[in-house]
Specification:
The structure holds 2 protein chains of 2 kinds. By secondary structure, chain A is α/β, with parallel strands linked by helices. Chain A has 11 helices and 4 strands. Chain A has 2 domains: 31 residues, no CATH class; 155 residues, Alpha-Beta Complex (Nitrile Hydratase, Chain A). In chain A, strands 1-4 form a two-stranded parallel ribbon. A two-stranded parallel sheet of chain A has the order 2-3. The longest helix of chain A is centred in the N-terminal third of the chain and has 15 residues. The radius of gyration of chain A is 21 Å and the shape is globular. A 5-stranded antiparallel sheet of chain B has the order 4-3-2-1-5. The model of chain B has no long low-confidence stretch (mean pLDDT 95). Classes of the chains: A alpha/beta, B alpha+beta. At the A-B interface, strand 3 of A face helix 1, strand 2, strand 3 and strand 4 of B. Strand 3 of chain A pairs parallel with strand 4 of chain B.
């Protein structure tokens, strides 16, 4: 192609559209065409998804740390406990009956000094989105899903978390309708803290179980990326 | 004669405002197992679809919770939701699941859910 041809092309609105995005658009348009749902239904759903994030789950844990009665409720009935942080597993999603992926059965897994939970969905990548938001990319990889169930301590080491042998590491594989969040042990150095201060240190990675909360740490550890020396060139790169 | 139409809305009709699995509450009858029971996982034929991981087949664990009633995934995936079963949260010891799991970490465990058809008394 000569430079002359390139100069007549309209500038793209996005740099690159992936095959998955093209597939999603095609399936969505077909579904709307066939009457499975409407464009409006899709818009409402997309807007709901954009409201989701990890703060409600973090706040649930902070509240439980401060209130022993609420902690008991959280461990016994995660769906009821979610209401206190503004999440109704049945009526918050636009469907009014949950979703085929998230359902309506949250369980809060309570860590103790002798028991550490960590969550995975080995079958696909089920995740408690209504209270925790969208899952991180690594959580969905076969790497994590296949390895955590069998080599949990090795995988946790890769996240920088090592536990003594006496601590029971329990992998929760969310293979059916239950979705899990982990309630970590409240760390030392947080005496007298407010709910807001405690909420800040319960990161998404703590709620999945691959990290433990620490005073002063208010974000997930960065996943190291080593840029390729000779990256693959796609023919639609500019 | 008109084509038989599959009612795509039957689930929404019974679950709206109620939730899923809440909409199946009371439909499974009496649970076969209780908390504390030792159960083993049957290796049932699972042609087409299952949510009972192969790594649990034949393993023995302990029931820690009766979590909910629901059609089993193997039926639900085909929209056959007429019959419900009790679902159990079962804890297995990792060194029962994996041959190379180190004795040094003999406390380690794995918790996952199985529907009643997959379990028998151990």
């Amino acid at each position: 192609m000569s430079d002359h041809d390139h100069s007549h092309k309209p500038a793209p609105m996005v740099d690159e559209v992936s095959d998955f995005e093209i597939l999603e658009m095609a399936v969505r348009e077909l579904a709307i065409d066939k009457g499975l749902f409407s464009q409006e239904d899709h818009r409402v759903w997309t807007e709901y998804v954009h409201t989701l994030g990890p703060v409600p789950a973090a706040r649930l844990v902070a509240k439980a740390w401060l209130d022993p009665e609420y902690k008991k409720l959280a461990a016994a009935d995660g769906v009821e406990a979610s209401k206190a942080v503004g999440v109704d597993w049945v009526t918050s999603p636009p469907t009014q009956f949950g979703t085929p992926s998230d359902y309506c059965n949250l369980r809060v897994l309570e860590d103790t000094p002798k028991l550490k939970h960590v969550v995975v969905c080995s079958l696909c990548s089920c995740y408690p989105r209504p209270i925790l938001g969208q899952s991180p990319e690594w959580y969905r990889t076969p790497n994590y899903r296949r390895r955590l169930v069998r080599w949990p301590r090795q995988v946790l080491s890769e996240f920088g978390l090592q536990l003594p042998p006496e601590v029971e590491v329990r992998v929760a594989d969310s293979n059916q309708k239950t979705r899990y969040i982990v309630m970590p042990v409240r760390p030392e150095g947080t005496e007298g803290w407010t709910e807001d201060q405690l909420t800040e240190i319960v990161t998404r990675d703590c709620l999945i179980g691959v990290a433990v909360p620490k005073p002063g740490i208010t974000s997930n550890a960065k996943r190291p990326i080593r840029k390729a020396i000779h990256p693959v060139q796609h023919d639609h790169d500019h | 004669m008109s084509k038989i139409q599959h009612d795509r809305t039957h689930h929404a009709k019974m679950a709206t405002g109620v939730g899923d699995p809440q909409c199946f509450k009371g439909k499974a009858g009496k649970p076969k197992f209780k908390i504390g029971d030792r159960v083993s996982v049957k290796d049932l034929p699972d042609i087409f679809y299952t949510r009972t991981m192969v790594y649990t087949r034949g393993a023995v664990g302990e029931v820690v919770e009766l979590v909910y009633e629901s059609p089993p995934a193997e039926d639900e995936s085909w929209d056959n939701t007429d019959k419900s079963e009790w679902f159990y949260s079962v804890v297995f010891k990792q060194n029962d699941l994996w041959p190379e799991y180190s004795d040094e970490f003999s406390n380690d465990s794995l918790e996952t859910e199985l529907s009643e058809r997959w379990l028998e008394s151990a």
